[in-house]
Write a structure and sequence with these properties.
single chain; seven-stranded parallel sheet; three-stranded mixed sheet; 13 helices
Length: 350
Amino acid sequence: MRIGVTGSSGFIGSNFIHYLLSNPEINEELFIVNIDKLTYAGAGKNILHMFKETHNKKFLTHYKFVRADICDFKTIDLIVQTFKLDCIVNFAAESHNSYAILNPSVFFKTNLMGTQTLLEVVRKNNLRFHHISTCEVYGDLALDSKEEFKEDSSYRPNTPYNASKAAADLAVRAYVRTFNVKATISNCGNNYGSYQFPEKLIPLFVTNLLENKKIPLYKQSQNKREWIHVKDHCSAVYKILKYGKIGETYNIGSGVEKSIEEITTIILKYLGKSEDMKEYVDDRPGHDRRYLLDSTKIFKELGWKPVIDFENGIKETIEWYKKNKKWWLPLKQKQMIQENKWGEKNKSEE
């Protein structure tokens, strides 16, 4: 199978390529084309770094990088034809909720119009398409709720990022119904693991503490998220790509819920830091309370389940950031947002 993976210089996409080319259980011949615009969040040279770590020789013979914007139909179409791709997996997205509040237009352009452009390429070339979405399209849940989001739950996005992803999902569904495009969608919870850009919660908190800087907790620090290791997410995506039913959506969750406060406590304790390192800041606008997915469908229909225990996974992640300061330190200078400035003028507005 010859797969184009968009946005795969970023966190989840690069881990997906590494999963495909490093997993001995995958017994089919694969050729991967990494299609990425290399925005600030894709500038960490993730794939080169991770393949040097593992000394994986498949990187030389089964992988190609092409710099391209998913909004550019002609270039994406040329890539598909040049490399004779069978399918496209779309990880490409602007994904930082806080940045979306300051620059929503970028999110709708990439997340909606970029996805629609890919759908046109897929339609023209009769390719298989899988679209990576998020649990946040469903809106949020009350903290004391026993409800879980199912694949057929109503879409109620609360932020520009969430809305742009919800719109993209609807575009995929429309192309399946109207043009018989061979597409599937997956909605996943909060990912964590190595190579996550240090603007997101876990790497931001870990790297701040490693630099002896305070960590900015929103005042609503009891808000909860469902946490899944990026490697488990990647295995689920491959399972859907291979065996998922065309036109279907699959939730990818772990069932592990942790509040921001709980995550902070785990990180502080592991790094031997005191509670004084916490700094409570104003919540960003539209801050969702809680997400939790019902992942019964993918468990039963595709036989997938997460295998990485959260306690082990979070410790492994913290250790990775401790050992890879040369990777994340330059990236911290590219951060778009100061999370402790919501009550003031934010950095990227200056």
